[in-house]
Every structure is written in C-alpha cells, then in structure tokens.
Amino acid sequence: NCLALIFHLLKQKILNVAHIANSQKFAEEKSLIQIFKPFNSTIFMAVKYLIDKILITLEVAEKTALLIALTKDGQIHRKGNGNATNTTLQLAQGFSSDGHFEALMMTVDESIFHYAGIINEPEKAGKECRLTIVFQGGNGLDYSFRVLYGENSQGPPAELVKVLVNAVAITEPWYQQQLNPERQKKWWQFWK
Fold it and tell me: How far apart are CA 80 and CA 57, in angstroms?
C-alpha cells in the first residue's frame, strides 16, 4: 500500500533529511540557499490528498500583511489583504461549508512538494518580504516553504505565487462578508 509506505518513511524521518541542492524548477527563477528534497520522488504522487491544513503568511518589513489559514473541516482564519501599508488589519475567523480548502487544493500543483524548503534571494531590492506557505497533514506530515525576497526584486517562484493569489481570491468573498455582515443580501435579493 502506497500510503502505508509513505507513513512508514515519515516515521523513520527518511523524507525529512535536508541537503543543499539545486531544484530544477526553482533554480531557473531563483538562486537557492537551501532546499529540501526527498530521496524518491515517485512516493510523493498523492501527497496533496494527505494534507488537511494550509497556512499562508506574507510579511513586509517584519509586519504581517496577510494571513490565511484553512482546514479541511471548514475552519477559516484570514487577516489582511497583502497590503503592507494597511495598519488596521482585521482578523476574521469562522467555519464555512463552501469548500474553500478543497478549492485551493485543486489549484495546487503536486510537483511543488518535491521542493519544499527555504529560498533566500541574495540581492534584495526594497523592503524585505517573507512568504511562508505550510501544508500539513496527519502523522506529522509537513511541507513548508519560506521565501525571503525584496519588495522590488523578482519575488517568489510562480508556483508559490499561484498558491498565494488563489488563496486570496478564494477567501476574499468570505472575508468581505465577515468584515461587512450588514452587506449580506437577503434571500430574495438575488439580482443585487
């Protein structure tokens, strides 16, 4: 059983061995300082389906500009919109049966899990930014990405930007509804 093999390897911490490597996919876009890569990438075909929590944070000049946490059971936590100049970030927390977690996971490319780790852009232009994306599942499953870059630099790899942009787009209607509950339409006002 493929899942049993994955859990067995995770328990032995074989998959958590870190080494310096150049990622085929990210090396084209970034100079990598440290990247974590599994020994046998064929084992990771179904990792996406083992994940049940996602945390995304964007910090600009050591201030949180965006925080999104989603769980498979419907929990949503969101603070901010990514704008670092906004000083009044409001936190919205709750549950939703609208499938935000599933919608985001459908947009995640399975291949990114082969390259979890830290990307540190050596020449940062502008304010320092830090994008962190953490995917977690049962039995200690954890794939974390941290990208350190300058506000006016090239930025994170396109695959990670896609996760960030999709998370914002998928949670935006829910977030706006939580911040402005009086703007919620009545059931008979479907045309508005």
Answer: 10
Among candidate residues 106, 169, 97, 157, the one with its CA nearest the CA of residue 133: 157
Q: For residue 182, give every residue at least 6 positions away whose Cβ sits within 8 Å of its Cβ, in sequence order, or none.
A: none
Q: Compute the half-sphere exposure of residue 11: CA atoms within 13 Å on the CB side of its CA.
A: 6
Per-residue model confidence as pLDDT tens digits over 84-143: 777 778 899 999 999 999 999 999 988 888 888 999 988 889 999 999 999 999 888 999
Element (H, E) at 175: helix 158-179
Element of type H or E holding 137: strand 128-137
Q: Is 99 left (phi over 0), alpha (psi -120 to 50) or beta?
A: left
Q: Global pTM?
A: 0.72
